[in-house]
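Phosphatidylserine decarboxylase proenzyme 2
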Amino acid sequence: MGHSPSRQNACAGAGDPLPSRFARFRRRLRLHRRHSGGGDDSASAKAIAAGEFAGIARIRIVKADMRFKDKFFACLSLGDRTYRTETSDNTQRPVWDSEKKVIVETNGPHIARISVFETNRFSKSTLVGYCEVDLFEMLTKDLDEHSEDLPLLDPSSPNTTVGSITISCYIEDPVETEQSFARRVLAIVDYNEDGTLSLSEFSDLMKAFGNKLAVAKIEELFRQADTNGDGIVDINELASLLADQQEKEPLISNCPVCGEDLGKYDKINDMIHMTLCFDEGTGNQIMTGGFLTDKQASYGWMFKLSEWAHFSTYDVGLHSGSAASHILVFDRRTKRIVEEVIDGKIVLSMRALYQSKVGLTLINTGVKDILKNLSEKQGKKMNSPDSAKDIPKFLELFKDQINMDEVKDPIESFKTFNEFFIRGLKPGARPIAYGDQDGIATCAADSRLMAFSSVDESTRLWIKGRKFSIEGLLGTSAHSNALSNGSLVIFRLAPQDYHRFHVPVSGTVEKFVEIPGCLYTVNPIAVNSKYCNVFTENKRVVSIISTSEFGKVAFVAIGATMVGSITFLKNEGDYVQKGDEFGYFSFGGSTVICVFEKDAIQFDADLVANSERSLETLVSVGMTLGVSKRNSGPQVPELE
């Protein structure tokens, strides 16, 4: 609860005047805030609509039981925020007993991921296991606090466990949050800890709230609160006063902890802000915040030094793809920010080549041919039996991003690397959303997606090439006026992805047009560069699909550096059903772009919102993409 007056006196010098009760109160709150892990939640939290607020969750990571001894730490990720515990001793059974409070929104992220790392203080620590907790399920359990032992899953094989972890979770709903807010306030200002406020304690509280009008009416407000006339204000009386005044004339103008002005949004946001600021905790270690992903939280001191020296940046948005050292994307399934794995040396070389005039000069003086020859040689190498030995190393590099449990064939059945690269999946691994409704388009590939209503939007927010246009993308043979001002969606596949692409709409394949070209990388470092035109200069195959719900849809498969070939499995004149397998890319990263006629499709709101932030969305084949604007059928339910 803070220090009592007697302890304050013991710490002060004999001749020092005692600080006032109000000064002690503010000091207590500052200490409280300092120990709560940086305070990145309340001060910077976005406004939450009252109907969206589901509650505040207190998640405590207690301990784990691992298969081997090491120094471990754990991370908690929810949405675009990640928190981490301290590092344990060298043990097989680490104990952290660390907690964090997070906001739960009705339509916001609700799958909390807990990751356990073995420590490497110099560079990157290694992810050894993870589990996921559905906070909505916790809300349905009528328990004061729910404690559970959960299996830690192997990142490369989620059907395999590597240990167990004990967590506890308590979620207070909006009603409980409102009731407990007054309890938190009273507990901190209650100097003699008798569960009530005297007039002097009540006076200190009003002053801390920063409302001059309330300070001028302290005695009047005290009498108003003291409904039974016993000369003190208890918890229920304080709660009633705060609730009553909040509706009429709010008493609280400033947060007494961080000093931020309140009233910018509404009552519920003020209460959430102060609830997190006033967090009195349970005496456990508070997790450290300020991270976007668990990988960022896992980096050692060398990475932190490079950030401090401005050699690296770690952020979302346009510059994260061009100038930053890490590529961050939004995982649509879990609604959290994740980091794309890419070798640092490759990042530096791509920046040098694609983000400078010197690199442009090199591209124009022979690098195009070098990239093409290199890709052809690499394609042949990956088709050789000797390449199969690279499969285990590839799986180790991307062990938390490739789920071998959903792959159709066993790993030993792949005789070359390319056979593994174009691997098929088990039936049902990628369910197609609303498969019986042709008016709903679905995602064409496991990829990182950007969706734009027009070319102007795409060039403003993402594509920075000097000459990008729909006509340049499709070529004269496939281009039509109907597609000129259309909407477009970009599916960027990384090497670790499932590399078969699927049909996003139902219709008839009218034609295929092959367009020769370069093999630039499709990494955002190049796409965001003003010095090259990746999508209109790369080798690509354009397919035109005629549909009844969306009109003409152009499906463009674009090759990239290290892509051996683009293979289609359908022929001209074939009728294709939404979700059908359409083709595949051989080794390398690659991209699919779908162009819809103007006003033919309404992309899903979450995809558009992320694209407006220049933030790619990680999607899987079969997820919803958008609905036909020409469809007068039933309304599409929300993604949830």
